[in-house]
Model the fold of this input.
Amino acid sequence: MKPVPPATSLRRAPVQRRSAERLTRILDACADLLDEVGYDALSTRAVAIRAGVPIGSVYRFFGNKRAMADALAQRNLERYITRVTERLRQESGGGWREAMDAVLDEYLAMKRTAPGFSLVDFGNQIPVGKRDAEPNHRVADTLTTLLSAVLDREPDDDLRRMFLVAVETADTLVHLAFRVTPEGDERIIGETRELLRAYLSRVLD
Done:
């Protein structure tokens, strides 16, 4: 199983600090508008107005709104990994169950609080309703690299496959939990946690 390469949706990467700050404002505006109007009604012009930048600045980075949503999804993944990494640093010395709790808990926290996350998360939901396998492969690859040290295991194909199954399973069940209730049905989340532990314990115990 070869790792999936990172998503690239920027026409031009920011070089100067001012450009990076402008890109941040554009993505923040995109996230807020996704929550307010949804993906279908999202437009590059509306994003430019909300971000307080010329429309040309948006097109400097993105060719269309799909590219913006992809970039937001990639930023979500980067922020998620930062959160998980910090959580693991604070709880160093815990076992794999604590590590997997961190992985699930930080995803749930972003699902509940990060603007636009409910629609794009790491890329699975754009266009709305379409589920693309590649983002979950990317999440699994990233977790394999991140957690292999915690687990004291080589980040080999077996570990990558195991995390891919866990990510696909958690993704499906968490989306079910949030369809049942807006904040995520705690009983379904609890079942998800137990299912993941049962699956992973076969290999990690």
The two ends are 23 Å apart (CA to CA). Residues 13 and 19 are 9 Å apart (CA to CA). The first helix runs from residue 17 to 37.
